[in-house]
Amino acid sequence: MMSKLVPVVGNMCKPNLGITNNKLAARMFEEIDVIVNSAANTKFHERYDVSPNINTQGPFRVLCFALRCKKLRLFLHVSTAYVNGERQGVVMEKPFFMGQSIAGEKRTTTTSGTDDLQASSLPQLDVHAEIKLASQMAQDLAKDELERGMRELGLNRARMFGWQDTYVFTKAMGEMMISSYKRHIPVAIIRPSIIESTYREPFPGWIQGNRMLDPLIICYGKGLLPGYLADPEARIDIVPLDMVVNTMVSVMAKHGSQFDSNVNVYQISSSVINPLEIGEMLRFLCDYYKRYPLKDSKGHDVSIEGIKFFSSLAEFSAYIQHEVSEKMGLGEEAASSNPKTLSKIHVTCKRTVESLVYMAKLFQPYAFYKGWFYNGNTQKLMMEMSPNELEAFPLDLHSINWKHYFVNIHVQGLKRHVLRGGGSMLEEEKRLSFL
């Protein structure tokens, strides 16, 4: 395998991907068959001058490079199922066209009569204008306002056009750039939902770092999260990493061997074919942690109860403030404690509450999400594969038993690869308290 790999240093934020060696670039233009673009900035509330540069302009720069590749058979772009923004119900596998907005779709389907005037007043999404706006605002803002101002700008622009955060908004605009400027290049876009640890390969439970759900799972197991801001009946759409990779390989095999001028979209998702509710997932975790508790910093078992759900951020914040204060011994009897010790406890309590509230607020749009991602193209792909191919590259999300996955695979992987020690309160775990 190593004899077939040729690493090339590049930068998708620069023209020609930052490749200045003309001889190397010429060789790449002659030899490349397939390009896979999986680079992204995944911070939900990233600065609006940073996120579009990577998630919107980045794919366009890679596409420009691809257009110069003489033998290119496929441009495979890795997006996210959540580019569907605030769409509700069953969401189909359709590409975006330039200027399309979720808010515009919602206005078109819900307005009539005199409301048509209001619908027409919605600003038209212009991707190039958004990029210019971000650049101009970054120059105009004072240095001490730049960080906060650019984050707020991204979030405001995303929500105005019908997306829940800057990440999915800029990823959607990246798809628009690809669909609009691809010319003759065959394009496939895959949209995984929430990617978590592997189901089978290279071994069950393999994971690197904290994925989207993992701070919630770990904080709950450590007794730091007795309540959560979520709809327990909302579907949480999860896909194991290896099934995402298997789908990518299968899509490359199919579309790399036949020319197709269409933009083919594959949503790698479970919310339609094998739905899992947030409340159900947390019941699995509760049962597990009661049988196999994590350890606190003193080596004692952490006791947890069933989680309480909140629909209001204010109610959740007040509840968490009270619960964390009680857990850290800040009741009435704390007044007699050593002032220096008490001050440290107050600081720790404040930081913990702020982190938990921040996490809840960050994930709030996903904890109340009303869209379910149809994966018909992936199902069709499976039907076209032979039994041997399906055995080598399993894609069937319908076959997953979610309780088995969380209890026997995912939590075990977190303990082994993230907490580094079967659930003890190590340095890695302490860091997670403050996210």
TrEMBL record:
Tell me, which GO biological process terms does this entry list?
A: long-chain fatty-acyl-CoA metabolic process; suberin biosynthetic process
Protein EC: 1.2.1.84
Q: Provide this UniProt record's keywords sorted from A to Z.
A: Lipid biosynthesis, Lipid metabolism, NADP, Oxidoreductase
UniProt-listed Gene3D superfamilies? NAD(P)-binding Rossmann-like Domain
Keyword Oxidoreductase listed: yes
Q: Which is an annotated GO molecular function term of this record?
A: alcohol-forming very long-chain fatty acyl-CoA reductase activity
Q: What is the catalytic activity of this protein?
A: a long-chain fatty acyl-CoA + 2 NADPH + 2 H(+) = a long-chain primary fatty alcohol + 2 NADP(+) + CoA
Q: Does the keyword Cell cycle apply?
A: no
- The EC class name is oxidoreductase
Family the UniProt entry places it in: Belongs to the fatty acyl-CoA reductase family.
Q: What is this protein called?
A: Fatty acyl-CoA reductase
Provide the species name. Answer: Trapa incisa
